[in-house]
Write a structure and sequence with these properties.
Strand content: 35-45%
Structural class: alpha+beta
Distance between the termini: 61 Å
Number of helices: 11
Number of strands: 33
Radius of gyration: 37 Å
Amino acid sequence: MDPSRLTSHRFPRRVGRGSHAAQPRRAARLRRRSKLALAGALAVLSLLVAAGPAGALSSESAFLIDGHGWGHGIGMSQWGAYGYAKHGWAYKAILKHYYTGISFGDAANIDIRVRLRSGLSAVKVSCPSAFTATGTGTPLEIPAGATATTTYVDGSYRVVAGSVRQDFSSPVTFSPGSGVLRVLTATDLGDTGPFRGVIRVVRSGGSLMMINSVPLESYLRGSVPHEVSPSWPAEALKAAACAARAFALGSRKPSQSWDVYCDVRSQAYVGIGIEDPRTDAAVKATEGVVPVYDGTPILAVYFSCSGGHTESIEDGWPGASPIPYLKGVDDPYDTYGSLHDWGPLRRTAAQIGGPLEAKGSLRAVYTVKRGSSPRIVKAALIGSGGVKFMDGNELRMKLGLNSTWAVFTSMSISPAPSDHASISPGGSLTLTGRIYPALAPGATVKLVFSYDGTWRSRSVTTTRASENLGGGYKATYSEYSEGISPEQATKYYFSSGKAHTPTITVAVQ
């Protein structure tokens, strides 16, 4: 029998479903169906991932900070005083504006002891003329132009000046025979040079401290031109001189060896090197005039510029008690200051949340208490991991802000850029976010997008919502949500005024 016929007979072309000859074709069809099913499942999965099932997608915020003023905001605004002087105010009227309810008294030209520097192993001074070192025992006469070096050796103050040497059992005071002493050891401000008065060397905390004891009016000559520009109007300089005089008098510490620092911890003081005829004239014109309250020199704190309103001391400094003359007041002429307004500053959540040690990813810096001015007294740091509170001064220092008068706006977007969101062709995705603080009811934000280098936008209506922060505080914010169906890779962000979210890219694949 012909084998081909046998084969043809046994395996006809038209066979039933169960025949072995049908298996290869059936398997191919099943593979095609499986591929289609898998593609569909992947598409659905892609949409599910892009659409963000609960907890699957993250949110990221961007921050905008606007602010006003420079400094702590308590007492007299130096630029505000400048503005009042430019508008014809006399110095006493300027002082009465910033220090509520004060009057004026007379102050004697007593000595102010300025701590120039501590933590020293040696102190060096000189003088163009002969000068003297005194302590216990016989004074030591030092030749003109010699450098006197003081150290502490075996329980004594040792002064060496060339071939001259003497030990003293008590602190040493250097006095000029004529002229002024020259300080050769740099002060806390980094200054050397001539200083009026005497230089005293005392042992403190295991090292030496250098102190300049100088008459009050001479002290002002070396301080006022560092605190304000000598080019300012005369009445502003006089106001500054009187405030500095009151501050120095109020800082005296009879039970200690010194009264004030030479740097901004008290008032910057540089000695003769910074003196100027214009500020000298202001000091002379107001000699002995001191602002007082109930007959006592006031705590005449001051700062650079206010932003338009000063602050009450109890709101500006945590833990401070109210003081009648340190109340927040309007400051209409402070606009002359270059930092009357500052910002906007743009920061990422990491740039702010890191220094502030926020709980999780930072979503908002929400002010829960402001002072008599709009300065921040207390803020809530709202993070993905919880809320913590911080006072305004700590917030300012950790972020390096010019003042606590700051307004934080944060806007978030979800998915976040790190989610690398994508959809399949024909798919859709919903973008969501929040803006702190809340916008007006019914306000809109813009969804801004680009797929070809040209940016377009459309308005999105917001809704207001709130959350409990703990401690009896609540935060109000606005939510926004918008569906998108891009046909190609597109960039998106939400914006409101100058604020905007991070930018995300949604891929189509």
